[in-house]
Amino acid sequence: MRRFGARRPDDRRRPAGARKPALRTLARGLRARLVVAFLLVAALSALATAALTFREARTAILQRTQDTAVNALRGQVNSQAPDLSYPPGTAGLAKFAANLNRAGEAAQHWVVHVRYGDGPMVPSLRPGEDAAIGTGVRKKVQAGIAAVQRVETEGRPWLVIGLPVTFSNNTKPSGVEVFARVPLREDEANVQALVDAAQSGALPAVALAVVPALIAAGGVLRPVRELRRGAQRITEGALDTRLKVTGRDELAELSRTFNGMAAALEENVAELRRMEANARRFAADVSHELRTPLAAMTAVVDVLDEDAATLDPDTAHAVRLISEETGKLARMVEDLMEISRFDAGAAALHLDEVDVAETVRKTLQARNWQDEVEADLPDGVRARLDTRRIDVVVANLVGNALRHGGAPVHVAVRADRTAERLLIEVADQGPGIDPEVLPHVFDRFYKADAARVRSEGSGLGLAITLENVRLHHGTIRAANRPGGGAVFTVDLPLRTGGDEE
Q1: Burial 135-145 (b: 16+ CB within 10 A, else e)
Q2: Alpha carbon distance 159, 140 (integer Å)
Q3: Residue 351: CB atoms within 10 Å
Q4: Helices (DSSP H) in 237-312: which residue ranges?
Q5: Could you say which of 104, 170, 359, 405 would form a disulfide bridge with 401 (CB–CB 3.0 to 4.6 Å)?
Q6: What residues contact residue 309 under an 8 Å CB cut-off, 6+ apart?
Q7: Does the structure show a pLDDT above 60 at 267?
Q8: Where are the beta strands (DSSP E) in 154-196?
Q9: Closest by alpha carbon to 349, among 301, 310, 322, 388?
């Protein structure tokens, strides 16, 4: 079982070249998103303010120009209209229009045209100017109503003013109509100046918003960073990690929740460690206490087993059964002792430079498996191994394959010089391992109807095999072959770093 916070054997630092660029990571971070959101809000606020200001200012400027021009034109018309004779002739209308144009030349820059009834405009309109005085303005003036309209002619803005001239003694229309076109170039220039000023002011405002955005993002992200560091420290095994809680907002509440979780986790892990230590101590103590009576029982059973041939059949069968079960119990006690040493961290490697093929061959010969095993053991493959532990690994895998897969069992040794890896493969001819059981074959005492590796023995053989392989900084995996049968592959380094004595 992996200890809490311990580094896995295959944990490796990612090379610097494989890390994401800092700028890309920063761009995807929460800080960048908060700053961008803050700037977007600031930009939208500035744009909305500028748009509203522009609309109100433009309306005010044009309205002021319109009121000024209308009042000025009405005043000039009222002052000069009494000099007209009725019905006015073309010469009188021309003089009236000239006087009005001269009166507004300095201030308003208007262009005045007058007419009487349905007569022509005086002075005459040039081509294209007739459309400048819209029919809507003309109709209102004919009805005796003053009218104002903004138009655009040849790309230039104009204010068109239409005034009916009434007799001084009553409000009856005299039939004289005055039309003035006031250029709005200066007003448009003023409006454009407002737009430029708004743009010039908005850009610095958005730029200045970066500072409060960074400050606000830092204030929001500071508790988040503390949470990340705290979670990382807990992952590394520092279960006493606690966060400093300030304020009463949601982030402060999250920090309090984190502290409560860390306290509960520390308490639970401490309890689990205590229970695990008690379980290991219990297994070790029981195994140790059983060794002495088992040694005596084994000696007695061995004596009885030698004399079993002289006993009657029932007694001989009982003696042989007792001898077999006593042997199984002795092996189980030895396995428990071995697994207890692994749990206590007391297992040590005694490495030597050995010929791998010769080491595997001795394992097979010591158990008389030469006739049941097809061995592919190339010479010249050397590695630094603990021969006793490799003997246990090979013996457990081959014995398991013979019991549950049947002969012949294929054992192969291969060396990958490029990767500096040693592979030991044990394959059988059996039905294979149920896919649901496959992930649990190395679990201790795992029981399942389809678990072919657990039908006999102590239930610790493959678990001990796994621990011995890990002790060599290697890995072991179980799989089913496409053609049938199970295959176990041990992957070890050819050069185990350091002599662990």
Answers
A1: eebbebbbeee
A2: 16
A3: 20
A4: 250-306
A5: 405
A6: 316
A7: yes
A8: 156-166, 173-183
A9: 388
Closest among 181, 186, 184, 169 to 73, alpha carbons compared = 181
Q: Is the pLDDT of residue 15 over 50?
A: no
For all residues of the chain together, what is the average pLDDT? 77
- Dihedral angle sign, alpha carbons of residues 350, 352, 356, 358: negative
CA 380 to chain centre: 50
Measured over all CA atoms, what is the biggest interatomic distance in the chain, rounded to whole angstroms? 165
Strand-pair category, 156-166 with 382-385: unpaired
pLDDT of residue 499: 44
Residue 80 predicted with pLDDT over 60: yes
- Tell me, what's the pLDDT at 12? 43
pLDDT of 447-485, one tens digit each? 654 444 444 556 788 888 999 899 899 999 999 988 888
The long-range contacts involving 148-156, CB below 8 angstroms and separated by at least 24 positions, are 148/66, 148/70, 150/62, 150/184, 153/128, 153/129, 154/128, 156/183, 156/185
Classify 239-346 by CATH class: mainly alpha
Phi, psi of 209 (to 5 degrees): -65, -15
* Residue ranges matching CATH 1.10.287.130 in the chain: 239-346
* Two tokens, residue 219: 């204030």
Residue 278 CB neighbour total at 10 angstroms:
10
How many CB atoms are located within 10 Å of the residue 108 CB? 22
Secondary structure class of 382 (helix, strand, coil): strand
Q: Domain 36-201 falls in which CATH fold?
A: Beta-Lactamase (3.30.450)
| In 1-29, alpha helices (H) | 22-27
Rounded to an integer, what distance in angstroms lies between the CA atom of residue 401 and that of residue 149? Answer: 102
CATH 3.40.50.1820 assigned to domain 352-493? The reply is no
Nearest-5° Cα angle at 71, 66 to 74: 120
Could you read off the pLDDT of 389-411 as tens digits, one per residue? 999 999 999 988 888 877 789 99
CA dihedral 295, 298, 303, 307 (to 10 degrees): 180
Which has the closest alpha carbon to 401: 453, 328, 455, 454? 453
- Sequence-distant (6+) residues with CB within 8 A of 449 are none
HSE-up of 335 (CA within 13 Å, CB side)?
Answer: 20
Surface-to-core class of residue 400, CB atoms within 10 Å of its CB (0-12 exposed, 13-18 middle, 19+ buried)? buried
Q: In the chain, where does the domain assigned CATH 3.30.450.20 lie? A: 36-201
Instruction: Tell me how many degrees the CA angle 180-182-183 measures, rounded to the nearest 5.
Output: 150
Q: Using CB atoms within 10 A of its CB, is residue 186 exposed (0-12), middle (13-18) or buried (19+)?
A: exposed
Cβ atoms 217, 31 nearer than 8 A: yes
